[in-house]
Amino acid sequence: KSFDIFQLRSKATIQARNTLDELGFLDVETPILTKSTPEGARDYLVPSRVHAGEFYALPQSPQLFKQLLMVAGFDRYFQIAKCFRDEDLRADRQPEFTQIDVEMSFCTQEDVIAVAEKLIYDIFTKCGKKIPSSFRRMKYSEAMESYGSDKPDLRFDMPLIDVIDIFEKSTNEIFTDIAKDKKNNRIKALRCPNGDNIFSKRQMKGFEDYVRKFGAKGLGYFQMKEDGLKGPLTKFFSEADLEEIVKVTNLEVGDVVFFGAGDKKTVWDYMGRFRLFLAAEMNIIPADTYEFLWVVDFPMFEVEDGRTKALHHPFTMPKDLNKTDLEEIESIAYDIVLNGTEMGGGSIRIHKEEIQSKVFELMGISQEEAKEKFGFLLDALQYGAPSHGGFALGLDRMIMLLAGTDSIRDVIAFPKTQKAQCLLTQAPSSVDEAQLKELHIRVRKSVES
To answer: Which of 24, 346, 351, 408 is most exposed by smallest CB count within 10 Å?
Structure first.
């Protein structure tokens, strides 16, 4: 089994190189020892022996380097690149992972997507899988509103349905208060076909415990009986409103409809998770099916705790920076999703220094900080950079999906544990004090009281 997986990985990697070579892309290696820049996760730092007190960072991605290559006149670049992120680990994360990295100049989003679809089609076909040669697309806003996720699993239906207008007319103050703020709040319905016959009352009550783990304050539901909707919430609605709920959610006898209400990000999250949870419980997710999806038109920024940060990365080209509501600014960014797993993504990059500076300003990054951390990129953009864009595919995740395993640890030859340890070599490990001294690192020894 393990040998078959690594045979598959080798075949996929060779095909990736062959396809990109045929399309005129040049394989260029970029540095592993580089500069620490804010990219979302923590950097792995490497102390310098020659420059006391200074550090290299291992790259979280080759993003800045591939942009510089475009500025330098490398029309088409690719690299099967090692990337490093010091972040909390999950089944599909490792501290070091591999990306198929691609960048091209004088391109549009359509050009980039065409290359990515050709690459994915060739790899999957070479590995014996039948997939379409082009993939469905969906706006980020639709993905969040209909599936509660920017990486929706489309192997089964069951979309979330907006019912905030109906609940606004209820006599329940909790619902009416939430419905007053339609910009920031949501009330979503999730229809479960034939759920009345699948789940017991005890299970139905247990579902509330599941969603509470993800921030839900409760979970309402109706059951569609022969004589209409039943459930504890019906007393808050008129007969006309109950009929509208039946119509909007397309309920049939035997169906159950669940409701989540609250601030939009929390509702999207727990109702999206609950959709996947119910589908697994009902065993309606088909096996050996590949449902690809491009999620496009991502927001440029997200605001958390009053702090503005880039949703993808700060080098993504915004569509319109003049909107007063920063969260309404869209970017030319795109993710490729397979069966509910983000397999990769990319964007058209900012190629004008004034736009890049404006983005940093909106993110609260001062000119001094921008110059210190990204000066080499800003300087390069001043010399007339071509329009450019690209994407990266997670090679480990792709092989995981191709091999039908649940963890990328199954497709990496020497993986780390969930605590980022290598059980084979016992890394990370302590090093000799003399080595630390050479690196100008002093170790504080604990003093027993």
So the answer is: 24
Residues in CB range of 211: below 8 A, 6 or more apart: 219, 260, 270, 271, 273, 274
Helical pair 140-147 and 264-282, crossing angle rounded to 10 deg: 60
CA 376 to chain centre: 28
How do residues 87-142 score in pLDDT, each as one tens digit? Answer: 876 756 899 999 999 999 999 999 999 999 999 999 999 999 999 999 999 999 99
pLDDT band for position 446 (cuts 50, 70, 90): low
Task: Tell me the pairing of strands 136-139 and 292-296.
Answer: parallel
How many angstroms separate the CA atoms of 264 and 179, rounded? Answer: 11
Nearest to 28 by CA among 124, 104, 84: 104
How many other C-beta atoms are found inside a 10 Å radius of the C-beta of residue 24? 9
Q: What is the pLDDT of residue 379?
A: 86
Q: Which two tokens stand for residue 23?
A: 């399309």
Alpha-carbon dihedral 278, 283, 285, 286, rounded to 10 degrees? -170
Contact predicate 60/43, CB 8 Å: yes
- Residue 48 pLDDT greater than 70, yes or no: yes
Q: Which CA distances in Å does 56 have to 32, 50, 95?
A: 9, 11, 17
Residues pairing with 187 in the sheet: 261
Q: What share of the chain is helix, strand, coil (3-state, %, to 5)?
A: 35, 25, 40
pTM for the model stands at 0.91
Q: Give pLDDT, residue 369.
A: 87
Over residues 226-279, the pLDDT tens digits come to 998 998 899 999 999 999 999 999 999 999 999 999 999 999 999 999 999 999
In three-state secondary structure terms, 286 is: coil
Distance, CA of 111 to CA of 105 (rounded, Å)? 10
Say which residue the tokens 């990697």 belong to: 13
Look up residue 220 and give its two tokens. Answer: 């309402």
How is residue 112 written in tokens? Answer: 């980039």
Neighbours of 424 (CB within 10 A): 8
Pull the structure tokens for residue 261.
Answer: 């209400």
Beta strands in 329-386 (DSSP E): 333-338, 341-348
